[in-house]
Amino acid sequence: MSGVRTREAGEVFGPRTALFADVLSVGLATSLVCLPLVTAPAALSTACAVLRGAGQDRPVTAGRYFALLRQRLRAGDLVAGAVALAGLLLFAADLALAGAGLPGATVFAATAAAIAACAAVVALRACARPESLTDWRAAVREAARDAGADVGGSGLVLLAVATAALCAWMLLPLAFLAPGPLALALTAVDVRRSAAVPR
Question: Are 43 and 179 in contact (CB under 8 A)?
Fold first, then answer.
């Protein structure tokens, strides 16, 4: 197999498993950065940017992740995190109210879940957009446009979130690695969309 690259000196993993190992290391770094919660959008956006670099022969390492994160952290990232956290708390409060036995609780819970799913798709697709590194408003605007125009991609985003949540539920330590494969899935959906619609 002449097209297969051989392992270089000092390389821990072979060429077939290198990206997988890199995704897991970036996932672990992302989990650590997400711990304050308000840093979650910036952490996921940075992971997507690092993984996007794999297609351009740039290294996908935790070191590059932290270097890029140091360059881009700004007040807008914390505001985006605060908005995301407020949305999660509002959704949790809505579900608690629906579970309290109020009239029409079933319809209310279903409506709240649908709105939350749409908001999550737009937010996650915004994290995968290159614009999220510098301008969250532009990233959200483009992500909302993509979410409506690319329904298949939005379905893939929901499937990736469900898979990450299921893995974390089945085995708790996987929760610390789940952001890596999730970021890879988000990046793949965005790259797929970019290839389909040249910008």
Answer: yes
CA dist., res. 117 & res. 119, Å (int): 5
pLDDT tens digits for range 75-112: 889 999 999 999 999 888 888 887 787 777 788 888 88
3-state secondary structure the chain: CCCCCCCCCCCCCCCCCHHHHHHHHHHHHHHHHHCCCCCHHHHHHHHHHHHHHHHHCCCCCHHHHHHHHHHHCCHHHHHHHHHHHHHHHHHHHHHHHHCCCCCCHHHHHHHHHHHHHHHHHHHHHHHHCHHHHCCHHHHHHHHHHHHHHCHHHHHHHHHHHHHHHHHHHHCHHHHHCCHHHHHHHHHHHHHHHHHHCCC
Distances (CA, A) of 70 to 23, 66, 180: 19, 6, 19
The domains of the chain are located at 18-194
**pLDDT in the model for residue 6:** 54
